[in-house]
Amino acid sequence: MQLPSNTLRRAVGIWLPVVVLMTFSLFPFFWMGLTSFKTNAEIYNFKNPFVVERPTLEHYHKLLDETDFLMWMFNSALVGLGAMITSIIAGTAAGYALSKLRLPVASTVGRAILLSYLVPRSLLFIPLYTNLRNLGLMNSRWGLIFTYSSFIAPFCTWLLSGYFDTIPNEIEECAFVDGATRLRILFSIDIPLIRNGMVTAVIFAFTLSWQEFIYALVFIQESTKKTIPVAMATFMKGDVFFWGEIMAAGLLASVPIAIIYIFIHKRLVEGLTAGAVKG
Amino acid sequence: MISQRQHDHLLGYLLLIPISFIVLVFIGYPFITAIWFSFTKKYVGSPALYIGLKNYTTLFRSSTFWLVVRNSFVYTLSAIFFKMTLGMLIAKLLNRDFFGKDVVGGIFLISWVIPMAISALAWKWIFQDIGGILNWILMRLQLVKYDVPFLSIPKLALGIAILVNVWRGLPFFALSFQGALKTVPRDQYDAARIAGASPVQIFWYVELPNIRNVVMIVLMLTTVWTFADLQVIWILTRGGPGNLTQVFATYTYEIAIGTGDLGLGITVSLVMFPLLGVMILYLTGIMSKGRKEG
């Protein structure tokens, strides 16, 4: 019969891989959350690890009361905001210039910006380390904001110039005829036209900053100034990891991201696939 | 009165000042400094002493360095291989029509949105010997008799790092490929099917040539990111056991921050650079060759 075998094929060809994929994808988070609600006794000694016999909030209390966790979240948000603002400003300006102003150096500059994006942070962190020290910017979130823009701004430039490219030149010509200046056109016409693209750029900028690790690790030693990723990865005494607290921190740090993500998810997908199609 | 074009150019250069400043000050200048440091003996706080090629010869004579080279290549090439192939398969899966596919796609992307540090720690916890869930599962299945410290086992440690890297990177690949696959013209598919092509042939001769650009860019980006990556390995193993998962980024960190010898540390990264270029050329060359055959 036609129908059952088709259903079976769909089940195996589509649903089985989907289930495997979802499990593989989500398991670490599920396990992280589960662990965070177990007492230390249950974390290390369990009969059935998937059952929490005595759920507890002790790790969360410890995290919020005895550590700088809230500062870490604040720092990540602060640096993210700062890096995002500088990068969007630089990226919008440069993106517009490269896209619309027909500069003779446009393609060279564009290529230089792309190349700079390829220089790895694991190379630059050493000279930047000494530079920041000399400028007295060690342990400074400003230091992070500036160094972060070095890899976020080029990305935004590339992204936004692509969006500017989608605006037909005729629109600008018309505005010219009406007597508008370039800057006026940029602010009153172009930016509103690509506001979806700008939102995407903002999201990416913030995401890139939130995830950064090596600069934050090397440039900040003081606990109250640390960002989330580094603080969590160095949350230990000597050799001992406090897994309960670390998992709780992971969950707490992930929740706002996950919530925001639900709202921006469509934009993120557009951004990623648009970047892909742009090639 | 200056012409509109001159005015545009002037404005253009002005608008390029912020990005130029950022790139020159935080990438260009440090890069030059890096090259200078590699020829010096430099510790934090003390001035740099010129020592010529001594850092380079020290490295090339060190067996640990060559281990780092090997690890970096194995780590990167394996991760790239899995991300490309699995990413492509997942992309095709998610492009198919089934109930709830948007939700599935959305959930799948979560592992890419959550900060890598958090994910790496979650995986480290899974692989722990004491309290790790994997050990519990394996013991229940009676595959092991006692707790296995996976991340301390020479052959396994790097494999685990590769796994975590792939797990984290897949959504980016899948999504990029998804978008690219959607741009393949329908009529090419139809023509191939009429000609009786198998799925593999369709992939090789219809899909791949059309999405070649995207694949190249994704390949290039991921090569750079993976080859120079510190986060995953540093969090999982710090480069252990005994340097067996040490890659360029972690080795640079250990020398520069661990021992304080910035000169030697930066040399490690600088040696990575041309190797990275070679690898990119090689991998994108393979992609071009594939296209010529198609």
Protein model, in words:
The complex is a heterodimer of chains A (279) and B (294). Chain A contains 13 helices and two strands. By secondary structure, chain A is mostly helical. The two termini of chain A are 45 Å apart. With 294 residues, chain B is mainly alpha-helical. Chain B has 13 helices and two strands, in the order αββαααααααααααα. Chain B starts with a helix and ends with a helix. The model of chain B has no long low-confidence stretch (mean pLDDT 88).
How many E-type strands of chain A?
2
> What ranges of chain A have pLDDT less than 50 throughout 5 or more consecutive residues?
none
% residues in beta strands of chain B: under 5%
The largest beta-sheet of chain B arranges its strands as 1-2
Succession of helices and strands of chain B: HEEHHHHHHHHHHHH
Largest interface: A-B, 93 and 94 residues
Multimer state: heterodimer
N-to-C series of helices and strands of chain A = HHHHHHHHHHHHEEH
Mean pLDDT of chain A: 86
Spatial gap, N to C terminus of chain A: 45 Å
The main β sheet of chain B shows up as: 2 strands, antiparallel
Total of helices of chain B: 13
